[in-house]
Every structure is written in structure tokens, then in C-alpha cells.
Sequence to fold (269 residues):
Amino acid sequence: MKKVVSLLAVLGFLTFGIANVSFAANDQKTDNATTEQVADSAAAPAAAQAELTEDPDDAVNHGLHYTLKEKFIQGGAVWMTPVLICLILGLAFVIERIFYLNLSTVNSKKLLNKIEDALQNGGVEKAKELCRNTKGPLAAVFYQGLDRYNEGLDSVEKSVVSYGGVQMAKLETNLTWISLFIALSPSLGFLGTVIGMVQAFDDIERAGDISPTIVAGGMKVALLTTVFGLISAMILQVFYNYLLTKVDSIVNDMEDATISFMDILVKNK
Fold:
């Protein structure tokens, strides 16, 4: 009897322990589920916040540079590449001219004062040496005049005028290439427009239906090539006008300095 009671006691204890373990496991599952729900609810605003945070990055990625690159690809490499080449070559000539014209710009009044001092203190040879050591077209023109000094003032004036025309031509070198690319860029864009329109009508003819989806591709090529051609031409036109203004300024300064140079030679004859 005691053995039976003991056995029942052991079984009851085990049943109670298993029940407690089951309840504990259920409670743990409930707690885990609650925790997961809380985590999910907390993660949802975080995800939304992350999406909101990513939006500015997307806005940055879709900036001007990205948009231009995307539109360039959509316009087609066949017609967009020649326009880009015209822009690059035109800018290369622009940069070359800017450097050349900046190096050609000198202080004419300061140079004339040095030449006058050299003529008074060292004579023509010293003035010629000063012009040889000075960069720019103005000093080259003065050197040619001083080289004819012994032949008379008339010969000096003719030499200055003739060599001044040569230096003016050098100042305008490569400007014709820039003007060519200014005219060529929109022309290539308009050519792409015509080709795009032809493609659009070919698509309509093959489909037998006028639908926006059919003509969209050809129209996009037509419009994008025109836009990029005009943008390229406008950029080059701005620099071209700047270079023309720079050349005119240097030429006017050369003409005024040449008159003063002749006056100095007459005074020191």
C-alpha cells in the first residue's frame, strides 16, 4: 500500500512538473510573440524612416549630372556622340585660346616707359634687347620697328603696321574652328531630329496605327538630339564672344601703343 501511495506521489509530482514546464513554455512563446510584435511595430516606423531617409539620396542620385547622362543614353549614341565630340573639341580650342590671349596681354604703358628709358640710356640695341626678353605680340611688333630704326621712321612705321597685322592674325587663330563647332552642334541635333521623325513615321507605317507608344521612341530621339545640340552651341557661343572681346581689347591696345611708340621714336631721333 505504501509502495502504491509512493508511486502515485511520484507520478503526481512528475505530472505537476511537466504541466509547469508546459505552462512555462507557453508563457515563453507568448512573451516571444509579444516581443516580436513589439519589434515588428518598432521596425515598421524604422523602415518607414529608412525609406524617408533614402529619398534624399535618390534625389541626389537623380540630380543634374544623372539626368543629363540618362537623357544622353536615351537620345541614342549614334547622334548624341557627334554632338558631344563637337562640344569637347570646341572647349579644347577655347581653353587653348584663353591661355594664349592671357599670355599675350601686357601692360603697354609700362613697356613703353621701359623702351623710352632704354633708348635714352642705352640706345636702340638696349631697347631691342628689352623687346626680345618681353613676351607678347606687342613687344614683337616693337622689336620689328626698332630693327628698321636706321632705315628711317617711314620704314619703321611700315614694318610696325605690317607685323602688327601678322600678330593680329595670330590672335584670331583657331577662332574659326570654334565658330565651326558652334554651327555644327545644332546642325547635328537637327539632323537627329529629322532622322527621329523618319523613324517615328516608319514605326507608324509598320504598325498601321498612330499610338503614343509607337512614336515615342523616335520622337524622344528627335527632341533630345535637338536639345543637346542647342546646349552645346550655346556653351561654345558664350566662350566665343568672350574670346572675341579679348582679341578686340588686345588689338585696340596694340594700336594705341603703336602710336605712342612712334611718338617716342620721333622724340628720340
